[in-house]
Amino acid sequence: IAAPSANRFAHTSPTTAQHVYDDLAGRLTLILDGGATNIGVESTIVDVSAAHPQVLRPGGVSLEALRQIAPDIEITRRYIKAVEANGEALPAPGMLLKHYAPRVPLHLFEGNDSAVRAMIRKTALSLIAEEKRVGLLIATDDVPALADLSVIQTQLGTLTDLESVARALFAGLRDLDDQPIDVILARTFPPIGLGLAINDRLLRAAEGKVTHCE
Q1: Of 107, 118, 142, 145, whose CB count within 10 A is highest?
Q2: Residue whose C-alpha is closest to residue 92's, from 24, 37, 43
Q3: Which neighbouring-strand residues pair with 213?
């Protein structure tokens, strides 16, 4: 396992033994390397104490799968700012508005694919003109529209293979975090299956700041 990065922050979840070492080198006696995680995003957390079960954190078990056994399950969109938590225990892990965040600011874009690509392109060109170093966290499908930009690109996978995107998400964020960049521009993914968990992690990495593209 290679030496840890000086810029590593533990907020971006580890999905390999190297990530664990990067975060905790010097504090662990032994790390067992079982390979990269199979799913890539954390567990789904469900609250069954209310009248209807509620998903507090979308994760590796999709909402569609849960509805096969609990048709009335609902998803709770609740994000808590650190100042609001005031040191009190949260209802579930990973509910802070800023969480899973990389070292540099992340700007998130949502909307139809062509509009998202156009806005990422426009924003990247504007930042480059300001002499900012830009990283892109995108889908493979986005590459033809953005390939000529002078940026560092990390592709998570195709828009139709959300399982691969989920597996690559945190590794992709960490890879960009290790690059000499000032900002990350990222896109959301289709809100189905693991897409809900992927978008949840990206939203928190962006501290809730999303640009809707039309």
Answers
A1: 142
A2: 43
A3: 111
